[in-house]
């Protein structure tokens, strides 16, 4: 069994904190929430301190914040239907671009690994892909594949593939058609019985984990055409199969899940105020993997945990955000 | 289930696949009768509701019917479910109308409708491809099909296409001149024959973008005016005695036909009564277990024909399969504004093949910049650039469907697994094989300007060839907010 | 002791007000709160009564009567469910909308949630459901009124917020 220790409690936000994101260097944290601000925290000697507070870009809750892969930009998605892009060209973080077009609340924003594309999604059921035009971001495509709100978008760790999680209980995978630059739905992952709130790819991108309002976690494996196990691939397209369901562990909606690219551990943020860590069994068969719960931190927060993310560089370091208005940094050890 | 509406319409919540009872908030007018005792409502076995008064008869309660124009006005939901589109625009309605006519004829009733069907070129090409016929044969057999159902006349729409092109071009030249004189800069002018685009503009960008839209009616609606107000009177009929059906490549055209602007409240008649699409026609044929080829060739009539000008059965235009607006207006403007009679028109694809640009240069300077923008993503970028004042164009042919109308939402999908783009390209090749009409040389147009419209810039011309747009406010009353 | 607990409980509420500046510096405090929660959740009947007191005065969005008068809520509509592993009380409220109209049913759900989350002096998780069989699209409505993201976004809409505030306002 592992142990989760609280390193520090970061206070400052007023109202619920919806999301936290590690800087790609692992050395700073951006958080956002109901108070319409983005707070950037950095490590100073051995403590986390507030470095900047970004305000005035949004008129409603900021739902998700994301650092670009190069670490020089921040994208923030808001209920005011816009996405703000912040850069430090002037020395300070400033919002110099706003992406408009969604009909209502934007729920998620994600940078592609190459840094050339952004994906956003909204309650208007669409997923938008944005790319750099001549001197500003332009809409590359609008994807209308989901039948309900889209809660989360995440890019594949190394290919130009996009995954989205939705209120319609499905996850969809998209890739770009070469000569038309249209983004089309390559796969639909159907198994959850309620809203899928979040997803995370594993290190290779061949697997992903999804979390849902149905209180389960599901592990999915990609099977390419001609795979050795003989899984049929209609239309000669890869398909994703649910190879493991973790149920009975969470007692309320699971709002976030993150699969550590370094250690392979999975951390979840749940509506029962508990942060849980799962580990894949060593002798696990890739087509029928088994995971076990190695740590469960009761009352990690005093209210729903909305987000939990592994540090991209330092193994075992987790940051979490909650309805209780705090951001907490934890260390996990076996 | 694939939507037959364009992507632009889907995005603005105009296609929600939600049943009316969940989201629809149309206020219903209830006739209140003073009762001493309240009435009871019972559900019959067939699902209908009857109201029982104490000692009176059972009165069957009418189901609230939502018409497409209610939906358009509300900016709430629209669904492709039959139950909502049923009142005016489905195959059932069409069959009912034909049925009624046959019955009325049999019983020598007075109010027999004169049924006119107008065929647009894109669905003809779509059906031709589906049933392996030439475009011309497909059109003639369609005529045979409709005539066998009870239609009185089957027409092609080339005269309406020409009107729309010519009026748009004239409008552009006027606007260009005004903007150069510093008055009222409303460039770029944006095409408006695509109702998906128009609905999106009205609902999302309202008063900002509407002034840029061209005021010329789309070919469907010009045809509506022609049939109801010229053809009808030439046959001694009043507009409401004519039932006008159009064959179109998408469902968005159904919304266009339902607009209040195209409804004559005095005569209680629409310019276009029913829009049927290529896919629906295929369904009708399949239901009757027939192939289009089985029908005899009918006639595509040319009621407006002038004796000096013989026309082919089917005509196309230079340029895109969506009507060739950018092409025609480019050449017209080059001639009328810059005296270039043989301007070279070459398109260059920008970001993606659905966004193309063409320029007119003189002495190394660009004097006209035109574009064709198809598909929602390109519309989105166009509108955003416009909002920031960064649009370099003078005219943009805007269509909601990628690849334009040949790839409309209700065009028939390939039977052999061809991708929609490939199929649309194939249809485009067939389209360009058709003899081309030149609106400028069209004697018929001149004739109609004289005989029907009393001049080119007359009030009648304005009334019949132009239209308006209305910003649609989102319903903001708390109860109607969708959250 | 009880008043101290209540004070802490109030301070933990963040629904739409501002969190007062209260720093929880270490794990010790977490343990303290947990103990206090156990005290509160023990008195179930008292809890149900407090909840019902808050529900019955909520006004219907359309009619001038309260939810109690319209039988939309009733004493039996509140249930205390199994607590979370961390010991948090789970409350389940059921309601019976009078009209099959969806917008109104979801609005009532919204009012119930906001009223309880704002005024109930306890730490709890809340699930709201339409009485089974009372509505043709109850599944869709239940999903919507239990999705906290949808609720949060709805309350940021000024017109909607105004209506909800009007419905849940306690008459002096």
TrEMBL record, chain A:
Matching entries from Gene3D superfamilies are given as:
YVTN repeat-like/Quinoprotein amine dehydrogenase
Cellular component terms per the entry's GO annotation: cytosolic [4Fe-4S] assembly targeting complex
Q: Where are the WD repeats?
A: 10-41, 55-96, 99-130, 143-177, 189-221, 298-334
UniProt cross-references to InterPro entries, sorted A to Z: CIAO1/Cia1, WD40/YVTN_repeat-like_dom_sf, WD40_PAC1, WD40_repeat_dom_sf, WD40_rpt
Which keywords are on file for this protein?
Repeat, WD repeat
Q: Which family does it belong to?
A: Belongs to the WD repeat CIA1 family.
What is the recorded name of this protein? Probable cytosolic iron-sulfur protein assembly protein Ciao1
* Taxonomic classification: Eukaryota, Metazoa, Ecdysozoa, Arthropoda, Hexapoda
TrEMBL record, chain B:
Protein family according to the UniProt entry: Belongs to the NARF family.
What does the protein in this record do?
A: Component of the cytosolic iron-sulfur (Fe/S) protein assembly machinery. Required for maturation of extramitochondrial Fe/S proteins.
Q: Which Pfam families match?
A: Fe_hyd_lg_C
Q: Where is the Iron hydrogenase large subunit C-terminal domain?
A: 114-409
Instruction: Report the coiled-coil segments.
Output: none
The name this protein goes by in its record = Probable cytosolic Fe-S cluster assembly factor CPIJ010948
The scientific name of the source species is Ceratosolen solmsi marchali
- The encoding gene is LOC105366606
Q: Out of the domains of life, which is the source? A: Eukaryota
UniProtKB/TrEMBL annotation, chain C:
Q: Does the keyword Oxidoreductase apply?
A: no
| Domain MIP18 family-like residue range list | 48-116
Query: What keywords sit in the KW lines?
Result: Chromosome partition
One Gene Ontology biological process: protein maturation
Q: Name one Pfam family in it.
A: FeS_assembly_P
Entry annotated with the keyword Chloroplast: no
Question: What Gene3D superfamilies does the entry give?
Answer: 6.10.250.1280, Fe-S cluster assembly (FSCA)
Q: Which InterPro entries does the record cross-reference, listed alphabetically? A: FSCA_dom_sf, MIP18, MIP18-like
Which family is this sequence assigned to? Belongs to the MIP18 family.
Protein name (Swiss-Prot/TrEMBL): MIP18 family protein CG30152
Q: Which organism is it from?
A: Ceratosolen solmsi marchali
Quick one: which gene encodes this?
Answer: LOC105368994
